[in-house]
Automatic annotation (TrEMBL):
Gene: asd
InterPro entries in the record: ASADH-related, Asp-semialdehyde_DH_CS, Asp_semi-ald_DH_pep-lack, Asp_semialdehyde_DH, NAD(P)-bd_dom_sf, Semialdehyde_DH_NAD-bd, Semialdhyde_DH_dimer_dom
Name of the featured protein: Aspartate-semialdehyde dehydrogenase
Similarity section: Belongs to the aspartate-semialdehyde dehydrogenase family.
Entry binding sites for phosphate: R113
One Pfam entry name: Semialdhyde_dhC
Residue ranges of domain Semialdehyde dehydrogenase NAD-binding in the record: 5-133
Top EC category: oxidoreductase
Listed NCBIfam families: asd_EA, PRK08664.1
């Protein structure tokens, strides 16, 4: 099968490098275009990027030349599928330009996550929100472009654990306290003298994003927009001296009495994408460990190729109903892997740019094939 050509915007950064790692051998997508800041444009990828992953930089990518970062400034072919890993302010300016030029922009940034006509999606949780993209002006104006976003890295791990619980028991309120890895701040990120032997109890805008994104992700698509989940959510976000993997301590109040066995069954049976055979989807999005001292970033961050959330320490909460600890990989499941999985679902729903683009709404496929179990 011929692979679809894709580009990466912000290709030299922490998340951009993860995109390269995940897409280099991808069966459906082929990287043909990379771009970053004006500082990097015109350079070979190998000369512009400080490669920080423990797998080698793919030789073919090393020789790609970084292109200008707007569609207008490009003289050659810009692929119709763009994975974007830009800071929010830059994303705000650049992503709409690519959507207006007819590209599917699969974005990591927070810039448009809460925009009413932009889907904010974790496929196992709310793939049925994706048809919202057909309301965007770029799409309806027949350029066929659009923006789809994935959530904040802490929100992704959290909603994977919450979705099966919300479906079965209903969530009334939620308290979450995070311990977030330094790679979440990009490269070079947090200065070593600030974080070594230390905990920083502040990540700008993080608590606000986590609180509001959970409501949209667990909300429902009403045909025109998203009705937010009305649960109360309170978040504390902390930076800790871990390289990869965000750990979160979660306490929940449910709408009805729930047993430990029912919670464990909800997690174990949560496999909403199992029948779709998506290359990046983990077999088990939520993995429970009953070891008393797990999950831990050092041992569990790679679960499901970095795409599963590991949950553990499930116990009764004297304030709310139940509490547990979860861990997920912030640059894989929390960023690049999430975006690649979004693109795989869009491909399955026939919503990626192609010859049928303007006749498809994605609605039938969302309802019939990608509903969450
Ligand atoms: N790190 C993480 O765990 C997660 C990050 N995110 C989000 O993903 C986005 C990227 O984060 P991250 O990879 O960590 O950031 P980095 O700082 O590591 O990388 C930033 C990238 O943006 C490029 N860039 C900078 N300025 C411009 C510009 N004016 N035009 C085009 N490209 C530019 C840089 O290129 P150059 O090399 O040329 O400077 C680099 O490729 C952010 O919005 C972040 O919040 C989301 C989830 C998790
Ligand atoms: N802010 C997160 C990374 C992230 O996901 O950010 P954003 O919500 O801007 O994508 C962290 O530092 O760990």
């Amino acid at each position: 099968m011929e692979r679809r050509k894709v580009g990466i915007l912000g290709a030299t950064g922490t998340v951009g490098q993860r995109f390269i790692q995940l897409l280099d051998q991808h069966p459906w997508f082929e990287i043909t275009w990379v771009a970053a800041s004006d500082r990097s444009a015109g350079k070979r990828y190998a000369d512009a990027a400080k490669w920080k992953l423990d797998t080698p930089m793919p030789a073919r990518i090393a020789d790609l030349v970084l292109q200008p970062n707007t569609p207008a400034a490009n003289t050659g072919d810009v692929p119709k599928i763009i994975f974007a890993a830009l800071d929010s302010d830059i994303a705000k300016e650049l992503e709409p330009q690519f959507a207006d030029a007819g590209c599917a922009v699969i974005s990591n940034s927070s810039a448009f996550r809460m925009t009413p006509d932009v889907p904010l999606v974790v496929p196992e949780v709310n793939a049925d929100h994706l048809p919202l993209l057909t309301k965007q002006a770029a799409y309806t104006s027949k350029s066929g472009g659009y923006i789809v976003t994935n959530p904040n890295c802490s929100a992704i791990g959290l909603v994977l654990a919450l979705k099966p619980l919300e479906e079965r028991f209903g969530i009334e309120s939620l308290f979450v306290s995070t311990m977030q890895a330094v790679s979440g701040a990009g490269y070079p990120g947090v200065p070593s003298l600030d974080i070594l032997g230390n905990v920083v109890p502040f990540i700008k805008n993080e608590e606000e994003k986590l609180q509001e994104e959970v409501g949209k992700l667990l909300g429902s698509f009403n045909g025109n927009g998203i009705d937010m989940l009305p649960a109360k959510v309170s978040a504390h976000c902390n930076r800790v001296a871990v390289i990869d993997g965000h750990t979160e301590c979660v306490s929940i109040k449910f709408k009805k009495p729930v047993t430990r066995e029912e919670i464990l069954a909800a997690w174990a049976e949560f496999q909403p994408l199992a029948q779709h055979h998506l290359p990046t989807a983990p077999a088990h999005p939520v993995i429970f460990t009953d070891a008393p001292d797990r999950p831990q970033p050092r041992f569990d961050v790679g679960a499901g190729n970095g795409m599963s959330t590991t949950v553990g320490r499930l116990r009764e909460c004297p304030l709310l109903d139940w509490k547990f600890v979860l861990l997920s990989h912030n640059t894989l499941r929390g960023a690049a892997g999430a975006a690649v999985l979004n693109a795989e679902v869009l491909a399955k729903m026939d919503l990626l740019p192609g010859k049928h683009l303007h006749t498809k709404t994605g609605a039938g496929l969302a309802e019939n094939e990608l509903v969450n179990a």
